[in-house]
Amino acid sequence: MFARSASRLAQQVTHMGTRSYSEMAFTFASQRKIFYNAESVKQADVPSLSGSFGILPAHVPTLAVLKPGVVTVIENDGGSKKFFVSSGTISVNEDSSVQILAEEACVLEDIDLAAARDLLSKTQAEINSASGEEAKAAAMIAHEAAEELVKAAESG
């Protein structure tokens, strides 16, 4: 058993030497729009259910679930772009490619703060009027997303 594990580890370490440490093929899309399509970027900072984290080239392979919040993409020229995401998935692959697939996403500047605050009020009312655990849980999830949307709009 130990010999097999050591052999696998040796193969991984040998394979890691072939990875590119300076490039990261980054894909970021929602159901409605493709923001990046296998483009090279320096870094992506993402909110996940297990905590926010930054992704750089040669990041350890990872699968994670997006939580509502802001994705920041630092492009090769040093500029950055910020996006609000509602939920989705993050895949960081061994070849340094990264895919972020969001249920909903938009550029931070496109968020209407007044509309976001209105949505927050509506989701609070839905929590208060929910009958049953399932309806209350759904309303609480929508409320969490609305809270993060308001925070994103206020910071953008």
UniProtKB/TrEMBL annotation:
Residues 26-105 form the ATP synthase F1 complex delta/epsilon subunit N-terminal domain. It is found in: Mitochondrion inner membrane. InterPro entries: ATP_synth_F1_dsu/esu, ATP_synth_F1_dsu/esu_N, ATPsynth_dsu/esu_N. GO terms for molecular function: proton-transporting ATP synthase activity, rotational mechanism. Keywords: ATP synthesis, CF(1), Hydrogen ion transport, Ion transport, Membrane, Mitochondrion, Mitochondrion inner membrane, Transit peptide, Transport. It holds the Pfam family ATP-synt_DE_N. One of its GO terms (cellular component) is mitochondrial inner membrane. Belongs to the ATPase epsilon chain family. NCBIfam families: ATP_synt_epsi (TIGR01216). This is F-ATPase delta subunit. It comes from Meganyctiphanes norvegica.
